[in-house]
Design brief:
By secondary structure, the chain is mainly beta. It contains 15 helices and 54 strands. The strands form 10 sheets. The chain has a 22-stranded antiparallel beta barrel. Strands 3-10-11-8-9 form a 5-stranded mixed β-sheet.
């Protein structure tokens, strides 16, 4: 068990002292290293290449050089940016296998091991980003992607790479972490930072073979292989590496199977010419477990008297025999007794599934009798329906609980979160292939001048298939409280727990990254300058040009009837709701989850459907052919990015002053294809429109043309300086920015487009070395801002605003309660009363006057097209603090690394432009009347649905209030202080010779998980008496904690020293027994989201080197 501490510094010194006792330098001295041969002339040529960094100079956890500062091989001590290089040795000692493992031990980095990526949904659900995509469930300095809110830039050998492909050290020499915006690498990108992966290459002179086998106590296993052979010494070499991994999980059923293959070739046809090429194939099938617990409806139901519902009589019965009701559909969530809630799948066909498979397909509400017409199972207008358990917060989320979320399960008697995978029905598969080719040529190499060039290409294909049978917002433990079936028979599933999926879909998303780039480097080393110029040192200039061509599409599928029954729309088979899914999770005893959802993944084929035929008045069961059909929502997108950059690194005053200047210009354009549409001849989706492409954004015309073109272009820059007053002491400063062009979206006032996200950052501090370079310390102060982020729930509210205004959907149909359809109908009636047939211009002008908008606004609104205009709410994130990193190698067999950070990351601004737009429109929305004096604001549309007032409060203001409540406050799970110490010591003599011992101590400060609410609102209107604001003076904290890792190893040689073997045991989180950790709290202090913390992990690795 990990206990909070009030004195982390004392514990830190104790940890360092304990590390010192492991191996005092005076007691254990490594033998002298054998003399190495002087480098050959050909080796010297390779080392002179300014585009290559070799890891052979790394010492323990200390790396000396990087490519992440200038795209050239530069010393870390000569750069002002905050850059960390994670060495191969550190990754091996800590048994890390991905980026999230690495982020456990570095300064201001957070991954799945110390951060839970989740997003609260406006409907009250929790989107589990950690389970969905752990490769992007991370952030740096409390900042993530300006699109999703998490994830960082990934570069592979300085090529922009898809961050959905996980980092794996099997084919890497090092991992470079560049914190904050870095325009030298990513003028376009997240302000959080960039991870540059340094890939392994074929070695022209070294014969090597290595393999390793790894097992863990959760059933996981991993096999790696790495093989390098020079075919023509110093001229041609090949390398092959592979990994076959099966991850183990405590919650079952769950699995993840990874296979990666990597091949590389290096050719040196001439002394000054090097060509490298590599290809990697990646495949990952996964059925991952949930990382947070589902929401709980059973506890409140039990506390409310365990009410049950008779669908036929609509009466509620309690455990003590009391009854209440009947309760019709009208106002049911307001009138039903506590513990019960309306069904969530009315109007759908629902598959009922238990541990043995499919029970059948049914409706959850029937239709009133008719005497003519076509009956349909999709008609649901009767009071005979199924209910389910629900909490008061779920029933009344919009009002009075806009800032609240339903609690999650904590009681193992309801759901055993340590052993059961609640989303076992979900699975996915990722595949990728990456081809890289690079050529380097030293053109001129003299004592004073070095000119070198490189050119490269990377072609990366990625595809993700995900079957989300249980959507993130559906992760709720319900109870079947219906005592009878809809036909009056006893319900065999009565009092069984279940999870129900409203929108189960398959998604297939192919993506292509196609990059070509080139670099030209010049280095001037002064020789024999006159005395008055003796202060001028080495000058390095690098020019970079790059073209990126990326494309993507998302194809979505669901299950719909294919049979030609009269109630099937043969012209559009996907017009109705797709098949819903109800998974029963246990028996009717104890009302608890006994097992995870059934893993059946295919519902295509002939299934029996039971429904009420309201024309004949009888329930019928008939065979229905279901198919996995496409949705008509697919478009393809392409974007091109052209980049030019120039970087100069200058040394002055005998290397006591080093300056770095970088300028970058990016020009981006994008276009989208036509949207897939239903072919009325077949009733199925046709992708023919996907072959028709719209214009590029740089060809945009019309009133927003210039703004659109300008939004896709930008210049970014880097300025830095290092001052070295003493040979071992540096002062430095660095400033850089970035911007993130995204899909063009309209501004709320339709007078332009919203700005792209941009990042601004600066770093400054000191660094020094001591003890003959064995100790290296860097203390950094940073400030970073991400401005105009589109991440989070607030990003979608603007589109709902335009929907309320009456924009058309993708199918061309406008919302029934939209302002424009109502105003257009009113203007048409007025023209008709005057006997006028208006022109389109007259109609638009009259409608604009009713809506209180300008003619220009109306022209843009009408010309935007189907599904347009679209916009996004914008947010600003700011982070500032300190970072410290120290590496120490007391001896060759002892290595130590310490990292620490202070982080203050806040949501500085959230969606204010949307609220300002509403304030400008509410006087019109709330007073617009027709000629009979009826207000549009509170008129229920003729076709049903919510009145505009209800749509505004529930769909706009309520979720906005939740999102904006955190403005000016710390971001979720931000911990002000963290530190980590890593060490490893190898005994070189005595009885313990060849044994090693190591480990890590990590500490994290208390974490922000919410704020108590301010006093209830006293403003007049619907939200009077409702908590609408959070109190920044009353934070809610998760506890501070220590974490401990240990490792033990033994090295041996056999077969006449031809084979070297290493046996290693790592124990991560030694004192962890498994628990729930709070990650989000309601304004009353109650916890609504809990992270599942797994118990300690044992990892056993055996490696062999030839």
């Amino acid at each position: 068990m990990q206990n909070p501490t009030r004195n982390p510094l004392r514990a830190l010194w104790l940890a360092l002292g304990a590390a010192g006792l492991l191996a005092p330098a005076s007691a254990q001295q490594a033998p002298a290293a054998p003399a190495t041969r002087p480098p050959a002339a050909t080796d010297e040529a390779v080392l002179l290449s300014p585009f290559t960094v070799s890891s052979e100079a790394d010492r323990g956890y200390q790396a000396l050089n990087t490519l992440s500062g200038t795209r050239l091989n530069s010393k870390l001590e000569d750069l002002g940016a905050s850059i960390t290089v994670v060495t191969k040795q550190q990754m091996q000692d800590l048994a890390v296998v991905d980026l999230n493992d690495i982020f456990l031990y570095e300064a201001n980095t957070e991954g799945t091991g110390n951060y839970t990526q989740f997003t609260p949904n406006r409907n009250g659900g929790i989107i589990d980003g950690t389970a969905n995509d752990p490769a992007t469930a991370n952030r740096i300095r409390g900042v993530g992607s300006p699109i999703s809110g998490s994830g960082v830039n990934i570069a592979l050998g300085n090529f922009s790479s898809n961050n959905k492909i996980p980092v794996d050290p099997y084919n890497l020499d090092a991992v470079e972490i560049s914190r904050g915006p870095n325009s030298n690498l990513f003028g376009l990108g997240a302000a959080a930072g960039t991870i540059n992966l340094v890939p392994s290459k074929a070695n022209l002179t070294r014969v090597s073979s290595s393999t390793s086998v790894r097992f863990d106590d959760r059933g996981g296993h991993r096999l790696t292989f790495d093989f390098n052979r020079p075919l023509i010494n110093d001229k041609l070499a090949v390398r092959f590496a592979a990994v076959d991994e099966s991850k183990g999980f405590t919650r079952k059923p769950a699995e993840e199977k990874i296979r990666r293959y990597f091949g590389a070739i290096q050719i040196r046809p001439f002394r000054q010419t090097v060509i490298n090429a590599s290809f990697e194939k990646y495949d990952n099938f996964y059925r991952r477990p949930n990382s947070v617990t589902p929401r709980d409806t059973i506890t409140e139901w039990a506390a409310s008297g365990r009410p049950s519902f008779d669908p036929v009589t609509q009466l509620v019965s309690y455990a003590g025999g009391r009854t209440a009701g009947p309760f019709p559909v009208a106002g049911e969530n307001a009138n039903l007794p506590p513990g019960l809630m309306a069904g969530i799948n009315y109007g759908r066909l629902v598959a009922f599934i238990d541990g043995n498979g499919l029970q059948g397909i049914n409706t959850t509400r029937i239709a009133n009798p008719i005497t003519s017409g076509v009956p349909s199972p999709y008609t649901n207008n009767s009071n005979i329906r199924y209910l389910q358990t629900g909490t008061d917060i779920m029933r009344r989320k919009a009002n009075p609980y806009p800032l609240f979320f339903a609690p999650s399960v904590t009681d193992k008697s309801i759901y055993d979160w340590s052993n059961t995978n609640f989303v076992a029905a979900n699975f996915g598969e990722d595949t990728a292939s990456t081809l890289r080719v690079e050529g380097e040529q030293v053109i001129l190499n003299t004592a004073s001048h070095l000119v070198a060039a490189r050119a490269g290409l990377m072609y990366q294909k990625f595809a993700r298939f995900s079957r989300s049978m249980i959507d993130n917002t559906d992760t709720v433990v319900y109870l079947d409280v219906n005592s009878r079936l809809l036909d009056g028979r006893a319900n065999p599933n009565y009092l069984r727990p279940f999870v129900e999926a409203v929108g189960p879909f398959d998604n297939r998303r192919p993506e292509v990254y196609d990059t070509q780039n080139a670099d030209l480097a010049y280095q001037f080393t002064p020789q024999g300058l006159p005395r008055w110029l003796s202060w001028v040192g080495t000058q390095r200039v690098a020019a970079h040009a790059e073209v990126n061509r990326n494309s993507s599409a998302t194809y979505t599928y669901g299950y719909w009837p294919e049979s030609d029954y009269p109630w099937v729309n043969r012209a559009n088979r996907v017009a109705v709701n797709q098949l819903g899914l109800r998974y029963y999770l246990g028996d009717n005893q104890g009302q608890n989850v006994d097992y995870g959802p059934n893993t059946r993944s295919d519902f295509a084929g002939t299934q029996n459907l039971t429904w009420f035929n309201n024309l004949t008045g009888r329930f019928v069961t008939e065979p229905i052919q279901f198919g996995n059909l496409s949705r008509a929502s697919t478009t393809r997108s392409r974007n091109e990015l052209r980049t030019l950059s120039l970087t100069a690194q200058s040394y002055f005053l005998r290397d006591r002053l080093i300056t770095t200047v970088g300028l970058r210009r990016d020009r981006r354009r994008e276009r989208t294809s036509g949207q897939a549409a239903v072919n009325p001849a077949t009733g199925l989706v046709s992708y023919a429109n996907n072959a028709v492409w719209g214009p590029w954004t740089d060809d945009a015309t019309g009133p927003l043309g210039a703004a659109t073109r300008a939004s896709q272009r930008g210049d970014t820059k880097t300025y830095g300086a290092v001052l070295r007053p003493l040979p071992w002491f540096n002062l430095y400063y660095n400033r850089s920015d970035s911007f993130f062009p995204q899909v063009v979206r309209y501004a709320m006032d339709l007078q332009g487009v919203i700005p792209n996200a941009k990042g601004e950052g600066k770093d400054y501090g000191v660094m020094f070395t001591a003890l003959q370079g064995k100790l290296s310390v860097k203390l950094n102060r940073y400030e970073v801002a991400e401005l105009g982020s589109r991440a989070g729930e607030v990003g979608t509210i603007g589109n709902r605003t335009f929907r309320l205004e009456g924009r058309p959907e993708n199918n061309g149909i406008r919302d029934a309660n939209g302002f424009y359809p109502w105003a257009l109908a009113l203007s048409n009636r007025r023209f008709a009363a005057q006997g006028i047939t208006p022109t389109a211009a007259q109609s638009a002008a009259a409608t604009a006057r009713i809506m209180g908008v300008t003619d220009d606004w109306m022209a843009t609104f009408l010309a935007a097209g189907n599904g347009q205009p679209q916009t996004n709410g914008l947010s600003d994130v700011e982070s500032k603090g300190y970072e410290v990193e120290a590496t120490y190698n007391p001896t060759k067999n002892w290595r130590i690394k310490f990292t620490g950070a202070q982080q203050v990351a806040i949501d500085a601004r959230i969606g204010s432009e949307q609220f300002e737009y509403w304030q400008s429109r509410l006087p019109v929305w709330t007073t617009a009347k027709d000629d009979e004096g009826r207000l549009w604001w509170n008129t229920i549309p003729a076709l049903g649905g919510d009145a505009p007032e209800t749509a505004y409060y529930n769909g706009l203001l309520s979720p906005y209030l939740f999102s904006v409540a955190n403005a000016g406050k710390p971001r979720t799970q931000v911990r002000k202080y963290r530190w980590s110490t890593v060490t490893n010591y190898t005994f070189t003599e005595g009885m313990m010779r060849n044994f090693s011992i190591g480990g890590a101590v990590r500490w994290e400060d208390k974490g922000s998980i919410g704020f108590f609410g301010k006093a209830p609102s006293q403003l007049p209107g619907n939200f009077r008496g409702v908590v609408l604001e959070l109190d920044p003076a009353k934070p809610i904290w998760d506890a501070a904690r220590f974490y401990y890792d240990v490792s033990f190893g033994y090295r041996m040689r056999f077969l006449s020293d031809k084979v070297r073997a290493n046996v290693q045991l790592n124990i991560r989180d030694v004192f962890e027994n498994g628990r729930l950790q709070p990650v989000a709290a309601n304004p009353d202090g109650s916890i609504y989201a809990w992270r599942i913390v797994d118990p300690r992990k044992f990892i056993f690795t055996v490696g062999f080197d030839l």
